[in-house]
Structures are given as structure tokens and as C-alpha cells.
Specification:
Elements lengths: L1 H8 L30 H17 L2 H30 L1 H7 L21 H31 L6 H23 L13
Amino acid sequence: LVRVFTAGFVPAGTSGRNTSDGQVADELNTTGLYSLVRNPLYLGNFLLTLGAVMYVGVWWFTALYVAVFYFYYERIIFAEESFLRGQFGQPYLDWAARPPMLLPRLGGWNSPQLTFSLPVVIRQETATAAAMLFTFTLLEVLQGYSLSGALNWPPGWLWAGGSALAAHVLVTLIVRKTSLLAAPERRVEA
């Protein structure tokens, strides 16, 4: 939900995936979840994966995940924030002084400047949702195998994982072959 809420309200030119040409940011996004935490998409990644890691049910695996996540993303965030400081200067520094890096603050909400876009969410987050459902399906199968020694595909989990994979393939085809999920240009009016 953190990733869905972030992607659904984000203007174009912000919160994007970096390109082969390097980091890209046309605007500084300081509204919506960005008013509570500087990296809401990474917070969403953390929570999604934390769920799968905790599902394994081994406390030290969860602790290891938290440590690895922090050290991995800390380097990424450092590089991105360095880029944003250079790109936006003092406005970035003023904003970055308020919301924490990964743990959201409880006050200071600034409403998003755009309306929610379901097509953007579907285009950007279907792969993430499919990966998580597929991961939980695989974990369930592996847990069953470790307990019984036999490869067992629970029907509910098989259906969920298969549906997620099919949805991802369908959305990918729709995005590549049609304009059905095209969203109008999402820019904040100055």
C-alpha cells in the first residue's frame, strides 16, 4: 500500500526509476508520502520484503535482512541525495531537513498536488505485486517440501502465484501494445 499510494500520486519526472543515462529528476516531490518520509518507495520495498522474510519464521533471518537492507539502501540513498542536492540546491536541503530518511514522521502531512492515478499504479506496481505473490507461493511450496519431503503445490497458493504472474504478463502486453493504461502527462502546475 505504501508503494501504491506513492506511485498513484506522484508527478512525472519524480520518483522515477533511474535510467541507463544516470539519475533523473525534473521536479522535487515534497508532497504526499514524501512529506512524511524522504524515501517512501524504499520504505515500501522494506515492508514488502520484510513480510516475506518474517513468513519464513526465523528471527535471525529477519535481523539479517534488516541489516542487509539498511547497508544496501543506505548507499543508494546517499548517491540519490547527493544528486538531488546538486539538482535542486537549497529547496532540496530545506525539504530534506524535515522528513526522515526511512522511518516516517507522524506529523507534517502535505497533501499530494495531483489526483490518484490508477493507470500509473497498474503500470508501475503490477510487477512488484506479482513478485511478492510469487515469492509467498514459492515460500509456501518450500516450507511444505521441508516438512514433508515432497513437492506439494497448495491449490490456493498456486492459484495466487499463477494469477499474479498472468496479471503481470497481461499488464506488460497492454502497456506495450495499447494505450489503454496510458495516463495523461502528470505535471504539477507552477
